[in-house]
Amino acid sequence: MKRLIVVTAMLLLGGTAWAQDVVRDSVHTTPDSTAIKASSAIDMDDNDTVDDEENVIGAKPQPRKKGERKEANVLGAPVYYDVYGNVEGSGETSTTYHRPKHHYLNNLADRYCSFFVEGELLTGRHDAAIGGSFTYLPKRWGFYGSVLGGSRHTYLTLGAALRLSGYQSGLDWQLYGGLGGGGRHLGGEVGLRMALPKRSGKFCWTSVSMGYANFGGYGFFTAGLSLDMVGLAAASVFLFW
Q1: Residue 222: left if φ>0, alpha if ψ -120 to 50, beta else—which one?
Q2: pTM surpassing 0.70?
């Protein structure tokens, strides 16, 4: 009996000592030097990703020099359109298709001609003259000029031209007006032109205009036709003469 008690006591003491060694080894074990070096390298790589490099995500912003302009936000908020051309989420909707306001084809220079040359006629009680007019209208604003030779005077006018039509108009409506003179008399002209949209090139072959001119207190009616229209009119006169 005494021997059994002594053996049991020795087994219990040995198990307790072994358990203490396991706990001590798991708590106080010193890390391997290789693991320390690998961990340091990883930390250095992590720190490098948040360094001040400009093209790294999460990089620290570089301090700007005094007077240096900030970079503009060129992206902006995205805008989405439905099948009818309406801005999604907006109150202005339509059930028929229309080109969005900011469509890349909404360019007056791509829709209409820029150069207009017309044969022009001026007639009134005081005088009658014939000549031509030239207009340069690249987008919304431009300029025009006309030279007309009459039986009494030569009439010269210079002024501005304004395109009234929008991107989706079927016709190119223009308003023109300017100041000039006829002989020793000062005056001016104002008129309205109608032209077809651009077919090919920037030169318009089909246009017609009508206006009113006043020189020295005398009123005149003016009318203009493009080269293409002039050719058609001359052919019609020749055929039906």
Answers
A1: beta
A2: no
